[in-house]
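tmp note - arginine--tRNA ligase
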Amino acid sequence: LRATSRRFSSTTKAQSILNVAVDQEITGSLKQQLAKLFEASLRATVPDELDVEPLIAACNPRFGDYQCNNAMSLWTKIKGKGTEFTGPQPIGRAIMNNIPASEIIESCTIAGPGFVNVVLSKQWIAKSIQKMLIDGIETWAPKLPIKRAVVDFSSPNIAKEMHVGHLRSTIIGDTLARMLEFSNVEVLRRNHVGDWGTQFGMLIEYLFEMFPNWEVTSDQAIEDLEAFYKASKQRFDYDPIFKERAQRAVVSLQGGEEKYRKAWAQICEISRRGYERVYHRLGVQLEEKGESFYNPYIPRAIEALSNAGLVEESEGARVIFIEGKNIPLIVVKRDGGYNYASTDLAALQYRLKEEKAEWIIYVTDVGQREHFEMVFTAARRVGWLPTDDNLYPKASHVGFGLVLGEDGRRFRTRSTEVVKLVDLLDEAKTRCKAALIERGKADEWTEEELEKTAEAVGYGAVKYADLKNNRLTNYTFNFDQMLNDKGNTAVYLLYAHARICSIIRKSGKDIEELKKTGKIELAHPDERVLGLHLLQFAEIVEEACTNLLPNVLCEYLYNLSEYFTKFYSNCQVVGSAEETSRLLLCEATAVVMRNCFNLLGIVPVYRI
Ligand code: ARG
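out:
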């Protein structure tokens, strides 16, 4: 170990690091910028070969704004190995002394076993907010270690029910995609629809029986298809002759027989139209690359897995045994056909190899966790993914819990599922519209305004009610709760945002002009709290992305509105000496709220 006392006094090295690291790129989240400072300090404090990452976290406001917690763990690493440090406290002190000079930090203190508490500079917070107002919130985008990701979400099964789980997958997947996009990651939004499999045999056979030449004459809606699918399944289960015909139909379809291919394509098209109605209302965009897309890539995937010695014969099927799992992953069925897992393996390889994705994210209910664990393990063993699952390229399963009905049981929509999902959204909108009319808005607004606001609030409420919970927990679907204008709901938050917009409007000031000429001062403690929270937006997005947890952003948004309320009730805005600064703070709050909405897939409203 190098003599620490020498490095102790010399901060020149750190200073030069600062010049490179901070002057050249004052970007990334607040936490990332602090981490850069501490990285420089750590490098000046301990030997390079320790290669420590700065551990920075927001801390209890009694101690400061942020804390660096490296001293304790460093001490356990260097203790008894000839270091001149006598304990964690002196290490903490050295870390503190070696922090490069920076306008970010106002003061530091040492606490407990070497924690370095940081108080940020108020001027710097104010300056950063002001800069964002002028240069745009994009300048606050966090930095993620990847350039391209696949988000595989929604993914309903054609001709089978599209259930509430698919709605959850759609909402959660869309938010994750938006947050990654905001962080400058290129996102390939993939709808991995179940458009292949034996169910098509029975459905097509049944349709042909009911309507000869169905493939050219059909003008069905998805509701009809679902009813036919159910009927065909029943028939399949009790009529052995039909069953045989259905199985032959599968062969014809997979063999590419024209009539069958056409009928299949037609069924897919009808379903697609049904899904589009849901996506359109939700404002979600997806590119369909369904299971059938990966068919041509399955053989090469199985071959790679076989060549790596992973595939074994078991009871006539070809399988991969995965350590710790009771059942193996079947990759070729007994009849030689492929299945869900074969497709997923081929898709994973395709996404890595052809699409060059560095992160592949799958959004499905928790019930599929095992499946993905097995697929990912196989991919690691064949060398498609690194064995260390902290490294990129990476595959992650984003599981979520159930949606429950009022009766505490699984929330079920009846037979015509897709339409019911649309109905659900429509009902949210209808209720919002009624509430607006009740508040007299029909006299003030045009019909179009009324419609647009009801949609924004209604659909926003459905989304927010889903996203605000940790995705792994089950939640109860309850219109009254999600449409309440008090409490942690989208309605409350959207109104809060609209109210801020109206404060600015009613001030009569030209906010664009103020942005250029005015200055933010965070004089009052409630202003400082609000300002710091605004600045933490980027690191919250970063955290939500890294841990794939949209609820983190919801919590941030709710707290933001709480801090704003506190600020607004304790600090006079219009007509005060601090009017300009406070109006700018209102504007910054509105901008950040809007961007939270945007990332959550919620359309902001400006009037209420
Ligand atoms: N279609 C599947 C289902 O409804 C979800 C597909 C998820 N994506 C995947 N690559 N397996 O359960």
